[in-house]
Amino acid sequence: MRNLLFTLMAVIGICFTAGAQTKAQLTANISTPDVACAACETRITSMLKRYDGVLAVKVYYKRGITQVKYLTDRVNIETIKTAIANAGYDADNVTKNEDAYKRLPKTCKKFEDGGGHPKPRPKAETPVADSVAVN
């Protein structure tokens, strides 16, 4: 009986201890409008993977969003945004590091800076129909 009570107390103690060790995880969607190709995606992913606490990085370059899953007790969102900016890309309200942007390959720069990103499409104007008189 004594051993059974001791075993039961040990199991309950382990359960409470395991619950206390769960880390707070957050998933942040960061606006990265300058990211437009797979090379940019690779550059940002490898930069963020260096940080302790970053669990997963997914760059949706066609939508201009970078999704980062991280542990809040090891890294914060401002550090992540600064890392993206230091790689040469805008990240939400943190502007890109100009020196890092200049070091990017030509394919990763904006069109207006002589880069290989496609020229932004002009906004489509609504066509005006010609008036035709019907007799």
From TrEMBL:
The UniProt record lists the keyword Signal: yes
Entry keyword set: Signal
Signal peptide: 1-20
Keyword Cell inner membrane in annotation: no
Matches recorded under InterPro entries: HMA_dom, HMA_dom_sf
Domain spans labelled HMA: 21-92
Region Disordered, annotated ranges: 109-135
Protein name per UniProt: Heavy-metal-associated domain-containing protein
Organism: Terrimonas rubra
